[in-house]
Description:
It contains 7 helices and 9 strands; from the N terminus they run E-H-E-E-E-H-E-E-H-E-H-E-H-H-E-H. The protein has about 180 residues and is of the alpha/beta class.
Amino acid sequence: MVLVVSGVGGAGKGTLVERLRTARPDLWWSVSWATRAPRPGEVEGIHYHFVTRAEFEAEIERDGFLEWFEVYGHLKGTPKAPILAAIEAGRDVLLELDVAGATAVMSSFGDDAEVVFVVAPSEADQERRLRERGDSDDDIDRRLAVAREEHAKAIAAGFPILVNDEVDRVFDQVVAILDRRSVP
């Protein structure tokens, strides 16, 4: 199966994914490509493959992405070949994507995919989290403006909405989904 952790910026997706990767090393982690510069603390090949726009566009031409989008002026995408290889090898796959990417994955994998959409408890909490991770004022304003629209799209798509007010509780909810899906 493919598990997609989605949600608005500042919801805590990255924290949740980090915990899942530590607790469930059986999950194969897909590293997306991005044309933006790394944020403080981000590591090439761990958080993203940071590439030039030309490299990214060449991969688009080769039909090398499962999904890709332009987000806040930067290209982000999920490479197709490694995911298909992991599935072929019998591994469950973990992805962290925005709502558009999650919708694209659901279109590709259908019943073999599960999406959870993570939100912060409030817009004030979301803004605080974005500031703490070092986003610029312009990025924060953009992300807050887009968050309501993304949340509405997730509801319309039928994605379960998880309010990340307590990361342990949300983690347990996602692990329960994995365990339920792993039962033959």
